[in-house]
Structures are given as C-alpha cells and as structure tokens.
Design goal:
The complex is a heterodimer of chains A (370) and B (476).
Chain A (H helix, E strand, L loop, with lengths): L1 H15 L4 H7 L2 H6 L2 H6 L4 H12 L2 H10 L2 E5 L7 H4 L7 E5 L13 E6 L5 H16 L3 E4 L5 H11 L4 E4 L13 H10 L1 E4 L11 H12 L2 E5 L6 H11 L3 E5 L9 H8 L3 E2 L3 H8 L13 H12 L4 H4 L5 H13 L3 E3 L5 E3 L17
Parallel strand pairs in A: 3-4, 3-7, 4-5, 5-6, 7-8, 8-9
Antiparallel strand pairs in A: 1-2, 2-6, 10-11
Chain B lengths: L1 E10 L2 E12 L4 E5 L4 H4 L1 H11 L8 E7 L11 H11 L5 H6 L1 E2 L2 E2 L5 E2 L4 H11 L4 E3 L1 H8 L6 E3 L3 H8 L29 H13 L3 E4 L6 H6 L1 H4 L5 H13 L14 E2 L7 H5 L8 H4 L4 E4 L7 H13 L1 E6 L2 E6 L3 E6 L18 H9 L4 H4 L3 E4 L13 H17 L3 E2 L1 H12 L5 H18 L3 E2 L1 H8 L6
Parallel strand pairs in B: 3-4, 5-8, 8-9, 10-15, 10-16, 11-12, 12-15, 17-18
Antiparallel strand pairs in B: 1-2, 2-4, 6-7, 13-14
Helix pairs in contact in B: 2-3, 5-6, 8-17, 8-19, 17-19, 18-19, 18-20, 19-20
Classes of the chains: A alpha/beta (370), B alpha/beta (476).
C-alpha cells in the first residue's frame, strides 16, 4: 500500500537520522525506494545507515505502529491519504507524511485562506511581543486559525494571544509532536493541544535539531494564505519562512520597526521589498478580508488623553509621564487606562500604548520626560 | 551539705529558671557538673575554681557535685558561673546560705574572680521578677540593662568577693547608671534622595499601612537609600515597643553595655544568609526577622537569596512571630517587621534601560525572575519600579513632613479604617476580569487602597484610590 510505504520510509529515515524525502523523490516515490535493490540504493547515493533501516522497514509491522500512534492520539497522514493537508501538496518538497496531535485532530485542517501565520524573533522587544499577542488574539477572535512555530518570543506570543481569545491555533514543530520544545513552553504546548493542533513531519520521538527548524518553516508558510512577520533581524529564520511564503504565492506582511533598529532590520527590509505593512488589528483585518475592529471611543478625561499623548511618543514609567498632576494622580490615571485596555505594562514596568492612539493636541515636549 | 542558688537561662529572647544545687561531701576530691550541661558549662568548673581561689576563698578539696535543674534540658553558655560559685560557697559555709538561695545570679566569672556581663540581662531581670527572686546579681556591664526591666532590684557587683560581701551586708553594691537618654541619632533624611517621586510615594504608603514593599530598579537608582530612610518616617516606637526591641538586641548580644534602643531597627542581612540566620534558631538565638521586630527587614538583591531561606521567612512574615524548634528545645520569638525587598530588573541590571542594551540571555532572565515568584512575593503588597535616578532632579521632601502624614494616616487606619466604595470595588472587579491581577492580588489592592485613602484623610476608598493601588501591583 502506498500510505504504508511512505510511513515505512519515514520510520527508516527517523531511525537512520536522515531526511528521506529528497531520496524518495529521486527514487520515484517511497514504494520504489523500498523495493530498490542494494545496487540501485547505492546509485541513488543513499547512506548505508538508511539502506540498512530501509531493509528492516520492509518487514516492519506498520499496523502495530499505527495502533501505537492512535494510543497517543496522534494521526499520521501520508501524501496518499485524503486527510493529508492540501496546502502541503503545493510545496516542491512536500513531507512524505505528517503527524498531527491535539484536540482538533479529527477536524479537517482549515483552508489556507482561513489561516494566518505569525512568526518573528526569538528575542523580541516588549513592543514586538505585545503586537504579536494582539494580532494573534484578534485573528483567532475572528475565527482565523493562527499558525506559528511555538518558538520562544514572537511565536509563543502569537499562540498565546490566539489561546487567550479562545480561538484555534496550530503549532508546527521541528521535533516529534510528543515533545514540548523549548521545554519552557510545556504549559503553552499543553494549551495548544487542548484547543488546537501540533503538526510535525517528524515521527513522535524525534528530538529537536537545528536543521529541522528551517525545514518546518516551509510548512508554516504553506498552511496560511497570509504570513505576518513581527520583528526579525537580518538573516533571521522568519525571513526563511517569508521566502517560502513568496515561493508559494502567499501574502507576506510585516510589522515595521524603528528606522535603523537592528532588531527590525529584517522586517523593515521586507517592507522595502514590497511586503504589506501591518501596524495594528485594522491593517491585518484588511489583509485577512475580515471585519475591521470597531474603533474605541477615546477616554472622556482630558488628563487621560494627555497621558496617552505622552505615551504615543515612547513607553514611560509613571515618573516619566509626569505632567502637572502628582504621582498619585498619574498612577491612578494609568491604572484606569490599563483596565480599559488603552495601555499595558512591559516587563520592565513601563507603560505603553496597547492600541492605536492619535494624539489629540501637539505632543508634549519631551523635556518633561527624560 | 547542700546549698541552692538560682540562675537564669536564655532561650530565644526569654529567660527560664535554672536551680543550681551544690553538694559538698567527704570522699576523693572531685568536681562534677550534672544536668545536661554543654561544654561551656563544663568549663565553668575551671573558672569557678580559679575565681574562688583568686578571690581568696577556700576551694573545698572534697567531693563536689553541682546539679543544674531541670536536669533533663540541655543547657549552654557561661552565665551559670556565678550561681555555681555562690552555691559552692554557701555549701561550704563561706557565704550566707539563706540569702544565696533567694537571689538570682547571672554572670560569667573571670579567673581573677571578677564578674563579666552576659547577654540577655533584660530578659533575665524580667524573669527574676516573675520568679519572685529578692534581687538579681549581675556584672556592672549588665546592670543598666537589667535595671530597665524595673521588676526586680538589681545588684551590680564587681567580683565574687564583692557579691559575698553584699549578701553578708558588709558592702554596698555599685551604683547603677541610667541608660543614656535617647540621643537623636543622625538618621539619614529623605531629602537626600533626588527624584524617584513614585518610589517615595510607595515608601510613604508602605509606612502608613505597614505594607511590605518590593522595589525593582537598576543598580544605583536609590533603592537602598530609600529603604534605609523608611525607619525615619515610621512613628517612633512606644516605650513598651522600645523595651521589646532592647530586650531582643540584649538577648542577641548586640546591645552595647549600658545603652538602650529607642529607635526602630533596620536590618539588612546579606543575601548569602542561611535560613537559620534569617529566622533564628542557631543555638536558639534570635534571627534577622526577630532583630527587625517593630522595624524594617531589608532584603537587597532578593533573587540572590537562597530559596530555602526565603521560604523560611514566609511564616514569620505572615504570623508576626517565629517558632523555632531545635534539639535544645523550641522557642517562640516575635517578628513583627516590615519587609522591604529590592531587586535588579535582570541579572545585568540593564533591562529596560533606554540607553544601554541588556545582555542577559532569555533563559537567564527567566530564571532570575522566577526565583522570586511564589509564596514570599505574594506577601509583598506594594511593588514599584525605581528607574535609573535623574541626577538633576530636585531634592525631595524631608523626612519630618512625610513622617507627620504617616503618623496621621496610621491613627486613622487604627481608629476608623476607610471602607472600600462600590465604585472602587467595580474597578477592581474589572481589573480581575481583565486578568490584570489574581484574587490574591485583588486582596492586596484592597488593603493598599484603604491606606491611600487614609493618607488623604478620606472616609472611603474611592475608585481613584483603588486605581492608584492597582498601579503598585508590579510589572509583567
């Protein structure tokens, strides 16, 4: 059977520590690779370790393996299966099989146009984290599936935002779907499995390895019609994802950073090259073709507006917001704005704008701030 | 012949009764001390023998047995020397037996027969009064301290010979000088701290409500300067509180002879301190949390503290007292202090600095911040960020005027604490719904809001007070 053959090759590849996809394509498909003689394998340039595993895999009990997968609530789909994600067929190097685990395992995968991929730096700024979370929450809240890679930083924030909004989210992993990596994201991984999916082209038990992450980026790019890059340095992994997305004809948009900022060199470069610019939920809504979020009425209090004006220049500690009111009054204003969702606090304790704000008057001179 | 003397034994910060019985019998010459005495007490034999001979008493060449009752409890220290010597002298007919049996004695003997002070004289004098002793005999160095108790006549004696002469009415005790009156100590003033209006505000609220405070900021932002000035804006201790503070320091051996303490203590243990050093218990002595009783315990570099040590602090902070159990017994000590903690925003101290970049890898930053999470953090009501100080900021308000507001607010909180208004409550509910804070955090915010209202002299804590309280819940 075709599906079994693909699975046998994937298992053999995992055992030998070799990616079997390219070899299988050169051999003319997994079935032909399995049936190939020793001489043919040698002509194909198959490493000895893989040849040995392929010989063993011919006799492997695939039924028992599938049963084992079912026990851990994991579904395996090979290119021959109907449940194999259609989006992956568009890739020039589609995975031989994908392993899927999580609450939505029995539901059909969303069509690419009902999904958005959000990726970015592993060590982002607080502002980057916040916008990733906001965009993730907004998309998921509108029923759009949020796809990302569960890496540190932007990826995790995008998943987190989607989960907070109670929406669907898909994590594409560079290791087996049974492994929570990075380990710090154990909790996030559990939440994703509870209300979303983890997808990987590697069989369960495969340990994370540096070359597997760039490879999984092509799957992230394939799954969604729109890719949002939030903060990326030059030559970052997120730019690899953007390249894949462009190859597949997906929309690529980026969140801009400050001019000259090294942390945003990659995203600013994308915009220079013609990528769409996304600054907030409204911008993203246009790209996703969903309803633009309703504008929030500005706060009634004039002092509160002045505080927002000040924060539109740069994030600030309450002391730096200053103004004519005493420290107690400023703190109270900031807390009310925070409860109303206008401002948020970053890890250092500074207050920053949490939604777009158009300054009411001319911005206050920064002389009062430091 | 059997004779008795009374002495006292310090456990924690209270003194307990120890009866010294001396038996002089015929037989081979020997000198044995029984009653679970430790090494320092065993060594008393050498000091007592030399001290008695130097004071020109006869050391009986007989079979001498000394028992320290209650015999089943482990005892340690050198404070039993004088009572052992007196009991032996009484048993050998060289001192008036009846009087020796009715006075308590607590002093260490020198080889020349002189008396040396022991720690905890104040607690011992209080215990001697409770036990109905006629007087407490101490070395002149302990006399001022013992006399502060005011519950028992104190006899200050220079030497063993002097003690016996006083008991036999042949001599007068030394006069006891009063503790020097409160010297207005040169406390650092809040006016020295430039800028930091918000951290100063947090300090004032903490002082008014007795809240525990966490300050986060880069090195050099003035966290330590602010913390050191907290004792100054707290109201001065009442006479009975001052006595408590003095008793604790006396028991810890930290009181300079002949002095008393009438300010609030400020204790700043180093972050390498062990759990025993923080909560007490090493040889049943008070720990930092007890030494800070009625004052301030400052934990600088909070994440650097040993986790077990911080964990041990949790109960004392919650209950206002420590219960320490050791082989030598268990003791209860007061620990009603304010905790002020300080930490850097990250291990390198640069996180959030607008001008320089923090170089901490994310894993390290995560580990650093997670080290302070948990039970102790829950007990820090007020959390404030102290950004890098602005060297050109104007000097702040002076201690005296802040202290005045604090004293006023404390009275209001004690007499008629402000109630939380409905507006304030609904604001708090919205903050909880918006996941800005947990249920426990809401509890803290309520308390802080009441304090802010009291500082302002308001009868109820309004939504504005609550909003400001919410801003002190900490970053992240």
């Amino acid at each position: 059977m075709k599906a079994d053959a693909a699975l046998r090759v994937v298992i053999a590849g995992a055992r030998a520590g070799v990616e079997p996809g390219g070899i299988a394509r050169r051999a003319g498909g997994p079935e032909k690779l399995l049936a190939a003689s020793a001489e043919r394998l040698q002509r194909l340039g198959v490493p000895d370790s893989l040849s040995r595993e392929l010989r063993l895999a011919r006799r492997a009990d695939v039924g028992a393996y599938r049963a084992q997968l079912a026990e851990s609530a994991t579904v395996c789909a090979t290119a021959a299966d109907a449940v194999y994600p259609a989006a992956f067929r568009e890739l020039h190097d589609p995975p031989l099989a994908v392993f899927v685990r999580g609450a939505l395992v029995d539901a059909p995968l969303p069509a690419a146009r009902a999904a958005v991929a959000i990726v970015g730096a592993r060590r982002p700024s607080d502002a980057g984290l916040r916008i990733a979370r906001r965009l993730g929450a907004f998309a998921a809240g509108a029923g759009v599936t949020v796809v990302s890679g569960m890496a540190l930083g932007i990826d995790a924030a995008a998943h987190g935002g989607a989960l907070d909004a109670g929406g669907p989210t898909i994590a594409v992993l560079g290791c087996g779907t049974d492994i929570a990596y990075p380990r710090r994201h154990r909790g996030l991984y559990d939440r994703i499995l509870e209300c979303g999916l983890a997808i990987s082209e590697y069989p369960p038990g495969t340990a994370p390895a540096p070359w597997r992450f760039p490879a999984r980026n092509r799957l992230i790019a394939a799954l969604a019609a729109t890719l949002v890059v939030v903060e990326a340095r030059a030559r970052s992994g997120a730019l690899i994802t953007a390249d894949h997305a462009l190859d597949l004809g997906r929309d690529v948009v980026a969140v801009p950073g400050a001019a000259g900022s090294a942390g945003a060199a990659g995203t600013n470069g994308l915009i220079k090259a013609g990528a769409g610019l996304v600054e907030d939920e409204t911008d993203l809504a246009v790209w996703l073709g969903i309803d633009v979020p309703a504008a929030h009425p500005p706060p009634a209090d004039a002092d509160a507006c002045a505080v927002l004006d000040r924060l539109s220049c740069s994030p600030a500690f309450p002391d730096e917001v200053g103004g004519p009111a005493g420290p107690g009054r400023v703190a109270a204003l900031l807390s009310r704005l925070e409860v109303d969702g206008w401002v948020a606090r970053d890890a250092s304790g500074r207050y920053t704008l949490a939604r777009a704000w158009t300054p009411t008057a001319s911005p206050p001179s920064t002389a009062t701030a430091r | 012949m059997v004779a008795r003397a009374l002495t006292l034994w310090l456990t924690g910060i209270t003194a307990r009764r120890v009866d010294v019985e001396a038996h002089v019998a015929d037989g081979l010459a020997s000198f044995v001390v029984v009653g679970l005495a430790d090494r320092a007490v065993q060594e008393a034999r050498q000091r007592v023998r030399s001290g008695m001979t130097s004071a020109e008493f006869r050391f009986p060449i007989k079979r001498l047995t000394v028992n320290l009752a209650p015999a089943q409890e482990r005892k340690e220290g050198s404070g039993f020397d004088l009572a052992i010597a007196l009991a032996l002298l009484a048993a050998s007919g060289q001192a008036p037996r009846e009087r020796v049996a009715r006075v308590a004695a607590a002093a260490e003997l020198g080889l020349d027969g002189g008396l040396r002070p022991v720690r905890g004289a104040l607690a011992m004098a209080e215990a001697a009064g409770r036990l109905g002793a006629d007087a407490l005999v101490v070395a002149p160095g302990s006399a001022t301290e013992a006399a502060m108790a005011g519950t028992v006549p104190v006899i200050a004696a220079r030497s063993l010979r002097h003690v016996v002469d006083i008991l036999a009415d042949r001599d007068e005790p030394d006069p006891i000088p009063d503790a020097p009156p409160a010297v207005p100590s040169a406390l650092a003033d809040l006016a020295d701290v430039r800028g930091q209006p918000r951290a100063r505000r947090a300090l004032e609220i903490a002082a008014a409500g007795g809240h525990n405070l966490l300050m986060t900021g880069p090195p050099g932002s003035g966290k330590t300067m602010l913390a050191r000035r907290l004792t100054g804006i707290l109201p001065p201790p009442t006479p009975s509180e001052a006595l408590e503070i003095t008793r604790i320091h006396s028991a810890a051996g930290l009181l300079a002879p002949g002095t008393r303490i009438d300010g609030r203590p400020f204790r700043a243990p180093h972050h390498s301190a062990s759990a025993a050093a923080l909560v007490g218990g090493a040889r049943l002595r008070p720990g930092e949390v007890t030494l800070a009783h009625r004052g301030v315990l400052f934990l600088d570099e909070l994440p650097e503290f040993n986790r077990a040590a911080l964990e041990a602090l949790r109960m004392p902070i919650e209950d206002g007292e420590v219960l320490v159990s050791r082989v030598a017994g268990s003791v209860r000590m007061p620990a009603r202090c304010m905790v002020v903690a300080a930490m850097n925003p990250c291990p390198c101290g640069l996180a959030g600095d607008p001008d320089r970049e923090c170089t901490c890898p994310p894993q390290r930053l995560h580990a650093y911040r997670s080290r302070v999470s948990g039970p102790l953090l829950d007990r820090l009501d007020l959390r404030v960020e102290a950004p890098r100080a602005d060297a050109h900021a104007a000097p702040g308000e002076a201690t005296a005027s802040v202290a005045e507001r604090v004293a006023l607010a404390r009275r209001r909180l004690a007499d008629d604490p402000p109630q939380v208004s409905d507006d304030a409550r609904s604001l708090l509910d919205r903050a909880v719904e918006g996941m800005l804070l947990s249920g426990r955090g809401a509890d803290r915010a309520r308390r802080v809001a009441a304090t802010i209202a009291a500082l302002e002299g308001a009868e109820t804590a309004t939504a504005d007070h609550m909003a400001e309280a919410l801003s002190f819940r900490g970053a992240g």
